[in-house]
Amino acid sequence: MANIAFLGMGAMGSRMVLHLINAGHQVTVWNRDLSMADRLKDKGAIIAKTPAQAAIGQDYVISMVRDDQASRQVWLDENNGALSTINQQTVAIESSTLSIEWTNTLAQHCQAHGVAFADAPVAGSRPQAEAGQLIYFVGSNSATFERISPILSLMASKIFQMGNISAGATVKLLVNTLFSSQIALMAELIHWLKIQNTDIDKMLNTLTELPVCSAALAGATKAIQADNYAPAFPIELVEKDLAYFLQANDKNLPITSLIHKHYENAIKQDLAHLNINAVAKLARC
To answer: Catalytic residue at 172?
Structure first.
């Protein structure tokens, strides 16, 4: 049995942590809104009032939060940050989708504290988190990777060792950039098909059966056809990830820049909290 702290009980974290509890580990949880963490008390979780309190005496500290700012606060807050109490036997695991720059900075802070660090973001959303079928992209040295793999495997279907620190963050931003670009283009194609004198369902059903269409894009296309925009990967987070990717490349990516502006426009049209496929609503405007 391992002692694990899990920081961030949002849509992903609250689902992921159950697999650790069910495997028999002693899990301490923290969330900025403590009422969300309290819901896990009946499942066997210990509730901490701060990240610093949660990190005391743990074998692993895992963070799953919204963005760079939230990650910085969780780890480095002067009074309540996890690194203020973490010991040198602990592994710090950052599973949030963050910028490459901040991931490297956080790794440097961990190194200064003598703490092993892995950036380990995931592919997948709420259904995969609930099923324990996430895909991990890990950036760390080999020793750290070997140490954390048994823990991550409880929440994952696949774990990829991508390379050194920030390699995980890099591939996660690549994945989200590719996926968001595919959906934006498919949304435009669907809009075009709707104004043609054609059987749109037959067209889309054929497209989604072809090798050019990924399984993820096929699922998003079917959701657009069904007008299902329940949030799994909200547009506001899509825009955030595209901005991080552009930041890492000095915005010298003309196609990605256009896609980013498209999702920015979706936010301006009050679509921020809807799922990524709701960009199809923008195509109708």
So the answer is: yes
Cβ atoms 215, 149 nearer than 8 A = no
Could you tell me if 248 and 100 are in contact, meaning their C-beta atoms sit under 8 angstroms apart?
yes
Within the chain, residue ranges assigned H as helices are 13-22, 34-38, 51-55, 68-76, 100-112, 126-131, 142-152, 167-194, 200-207, 215-225, 235-248, 254-268, 279-283
Tell me the average pLDDT of the chain.
96
Domain boundary pick from 164, 199, 214: 164
Q: Do 88 and 194 have their domain in common? A: no
179 and 136 fall within a common domain:
no
pLDDT in tens, 180-227: 999 999 999 999 998 998 999 999 999 999 999 999 999 999 999 999
The last residue of one of the domains, among 164, 187, 206, is: 164
Helices and strands per DSSP (H, E), number in the chain: 13, 9
Give the pLDDT score at 250. Answer: 77
pLDDT (mean) for 62-70:
98
pLDDT (0 to 100) of residue 249? 86
Q: Assess whether pLDDT exceeds 70 at residue 284.
A: no
Range of the domain at 218: 171-283
Helices (DSSP H) in 39-166: which residue ranges? Answer: 51-55, 68-76, 100-112, 126-131, 142-152
- 82 touches 75 (CB < 8 A): yes
Are 95 and 74 in the same domain? yes
Residues 12 and 135 in one domain: yes
- Both 43 and 181 in a single domain? no
pTM exceeding the 0.85 threshold for the entire prediction: yes
Catalytic residue among 41, 43, 172, 281, which? Answer: 172
